[in-house]
Amino acid sequence: QVHLVESGGGLVQPGGSLSLSCAASGSIFRIKAMGWYRQAPGKQRELVAITTSDGSITQADSVKGRFTISRDNAKNTVYLQMNSLRPEDTAVYYCNLVERRFAGGIWTDFSSWGQGTQVTVSS
To answer: How far apart are CA 41 and CA 92, in angstroms?
Structure first.
């Protein structure tokens, strides 16, 4: 079982910065991807940024140039540096880990989620 612990959310003024981190622990076999999603009130959960095991990164257009995702493979930890924050970035941010396991004779992806951390951008 994979356990994800997020930290770093909070309240910040527009234009400010916050840094999130997510540490994975437990029985982890092979990490395929780690990243961040967010969900604002009344909206669907959306991808913010994700990094795969081969180092490729996918980011939402709305955060490109402002947010940076990074990963420490030795610590099974993913980070999200958020700069130039806007009120529309306000949401609960969720860490996601996709693990690749060999089960039942086939390789299967298993997804785990953190409990979420609140990010509020307001003056």
So the answer is: 9
Mean pLDDT of 46-57: 95
How far apart are alpha carbons 92 and 89 in whole angstroms? Answer: 9
Are 89 and 48 in contact by the 8 Å Cβ rule? The answer is no
For the stretch 32-56, what's the b/e string if a residue is b when 16 or more beta carbons lie within 10 angstroms of its beta carbon?
bbbbbbbeeeeeeeeebbbbeeeee
Which of 109, 117, 106 is closest to 82 using CA atoms?
A: 117
Please state whether 88 falls in left (phi above 0), alpha (psi between -120 and 50) or beta: alpha
The two three-digit tokens of residue 119, written as one number: 């990010």
Q: Is the pLDDT of residue 65 over 90?
A: yes
Those residues with Cβ within 8 angstroms of residue 61's Cβ, 6 or more apart along the chain or in another chain: none
Q: Given a cut of 90, is residue 103 above it in pLDDT?
A: no
Residue that has been written with the tokens 């916050």 in this structure: 18
Looking at this protein, which amino acid is placed at residue 88?
A: E
Cα–Cα distance measured from residue 3 to residue 22, given in angstroms and rounded to the nearest whole number:
10
